[in-house]
Amino acid sequence: MLSDWVCFSTASVPRAFASAYPGRTSEGLIDAFLLTNVLGCLAVTDVVARFGLRRCVVASSVMMTTGCWLRCGLGIFPAACDFLGVRRRRRRRRRRHPRDDPAYGDNGDSPISKYVASILEYERSSDGLPLFGLPPYPFVLAGTVLVGLAQPFFQCTPPLLSATWFASDERATSSAVALNFNQVGIAAALVVGGRMVDNGGGGVGGDGDAGISSSRRDDDDDDDGRYRVDDHGDGVRRGDRAAGGGNDDDDDDDDDGLARYFALVAVLSAFLCAGTCRYFRDSPPVPPSASEAGKAAGSSSRGAMPFHVSVRGFFGKRGFGRPLAAFVFSIAITNVVGAFIEEVMERGGVTDRRAIAWAGCGFEMAIVLGGVILGRYVDRTKEYKSVTMWCIALSLIFVLPLGLTQHRLGQEPKLLVASLFLLGFFVGPVQPINAELAVDVTFPGDETAVESVQQFSGNLVSAMLVPVAGRAAKLDYQLLPSVPLLASDIRGDVIFMMALAIATLCYYRSFDAPLRRSMADGH
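Now predict its structure.
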């Protein structure tokens, strides 16, 4: 959860981030995270096989915490002072921020010397407390890369943890919780980030900083909601701060909010790291299932295979390609919808920034809920194929209202939000269910290697499909324009997602492979 929170931590506050780091974007930081994540997926299997699961998870937890504190810098001090009740008296004039100092420029000095110089030269308030701010961008980037490298050790190991710790009728549920709980981190990034950084106090989406996507920011000044009212009752034009025409105190508040936001994530990571070091164990004293006991006995004499050898073996086994395709479909749909959630909601009549943020949060939580409920059903019945096909078919239905407008009815926000939640409920569980199915058909293969292949493929395909969907979203097709009762229009991105669902459904329906692990457990 926390690693994905870090990944999308600035997605809800793109303007505040761009204001704090001129010339840098939230999207660029997210891209850096995803790139290192994809590369890490290629190494996680061999590293876990060599050093053991506990050592790798603990080391990754420490790495993630280090990255979070690099992103936080010394911004923890003002947050701690506020928490302890030590208040700083703000001066009316604008204080000098380190990013405005030549030490932050390209003068040949190292980032560390620049940061130290900015701390030493930073103006002190009248009560003597140092006004430490955000770290320079190289620190934020380095911290993000560290968290991106650590994430695969949490993201690719849930099937291994499920097999090691849970009985055969609990694995799909446990994998669903572990794999889909990253959606809670994304939801937290959308809601918590906006609330903490939002200067206007309006919560998530109170102004332009708190939207989910920056794709349509530049057009917002021309619509009816071009003005907001600040805490003093004065009208403030959206985008003034980003353009440099806003109040300097507002810029300071944004910087303070961003620093406190990063500090909160850093503190949470420290607590989770301590808990991981204290309580995480490799395996229980007794294997939870017959298949796991037999695999443990066989692996002790056979030894672990290198990742590239495992991958060749997976694709050589009948049935591995279908669950891989379903996994890629699920992660691609959730990423496309999440990336363009603001445009999707606005085209359906939901324009309030706070409502958009909470709709995105509801979509992510529906993914988690669906994974738990449907995962539990699959645990009891082992109906991997039928549940997956029903989920893909229902996803095909519920994705349609996200881009279809019936001219006679007009915009239907309630239908749009309901469809969004139901889409998340049915498309999200496809990932953990097919992660378990892939492990089942490749038994006694390495569970971590199976999930590494799926995560690598899903993230790589998503990275290629999201830009395609973005271009398709600009296309609008008229349906039955000569029939007033049925005249509609549909967006290109929804057609793209529907085509992806149909292709996956047609390919998946031919799945017919033995469930080797289930047979070993006597099912």
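The mean pLDDT is 77.
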